[in-house]
């Protein structure tokens, strides 16, 4: 039987290793758009980068509502869904802030030795820093137990 994760459990789960998230945004016609992202937790928010002109970047600028699903697709299967409304910063708003977060994200997914290069690649004009304060959490462990 599935077990609801505690806050500590879901925070550990979504931060584990290089688990990617599947981000759902709202298209102009109201339909969902889903794309994989790299992200990090920061307090009660999750943070990621995306291009301003990507589908998700355009969707977020128009409608900030998002859901992020992080899962373990191995038995007994577990998942966490985080929901909230995005807060967007552009390069012009603070290139150093974007560099800081892009580097942290790079460290998680690419390793410390490649973090700075990843950060510099993503802290450029046209890139967005997206912070999503977490408004709702659904977290289940051992779904197939």
Automatic annotation (TrEMBL):
<feature type="domain" description="Pyridoxamine 5'-phosphate oxidase N-terminal">
    <location>
        <begin position="7"/>
        <end position="113"/>
    </location>
</feature>
<dbReference type="InterPro" id="IPR052019">
    <property type="entry name" value="F420H2_bilvrd_red/Heme_oxyg"/>
</dbReference>
<dbReference type="GO" id="GO:0005829">
    <property type="term" value="C:cytosol"/>
</dbReference>
<dbReference type="GO" id="GO:0070967">
    <property type="term" value="F:coenzyme F420 binding"/>
</dbReference>
<dbReference type="Pfam" id="PF01243">
    <property type="entry name" value="PNPOx_N"/>
</dbReference>
<dbReference type="InterPro" id="IPR019920">
    <property type="entry name" value="F420-binding_dom_put"/>
</dbReference>
<dbReference type="InterPro" id="IPR011576">
    <property type="entry name" value="Pyridox_Oxase_N"/>
</dbReference>
<protein>
    <submittedName>
        <fullName>PPOX class F420-dependent enzyme</fullName>
    </submittedName>
</protein>
<keyword id="KW-0560">Oxidoreductase</keyword>
<dbReference type="GO" id="GO:0016627">
    <property type="term" value="F:oxidoreductase activity, acting on the CH-CH group of donors"/>
</dbReference>
<dbReference type="InterPro" id="IPR012349">
    <property type="entry name" value="Split_barrel_FMN-bd"/>
</dbReference>
């Amino acid at each position: 039987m599935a077990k609801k994760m505690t806050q500590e459990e879901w925070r550990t789960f979504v931060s584990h290793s290089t688990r990617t998230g599947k981000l759902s945004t709202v298209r102009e016609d109201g339909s969902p758009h889903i794309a994989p992202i790299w992200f990090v937790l920061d307090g009660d928010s999750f943070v990621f980068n995306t291009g301003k002109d990507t589908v998700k970047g355009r969707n977020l600028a128009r409608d900030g509502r998002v859901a992020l699903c992080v899962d373990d697709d191995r038995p007994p299967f577990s998942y966490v869904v985080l929901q909230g409304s995005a807060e967007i910063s552009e390069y012009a708003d603070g290139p150093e802030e974007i560099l800081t977060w892009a580097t942290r994200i790079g460290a998680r997914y690419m390793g410390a030795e490649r973090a700075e290069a990843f950060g510099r690649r993503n802290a450029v004009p046209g890139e967005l820093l997206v912070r999503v304060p977490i408004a709702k959490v659904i977290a289940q462990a051992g779904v197939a137990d």
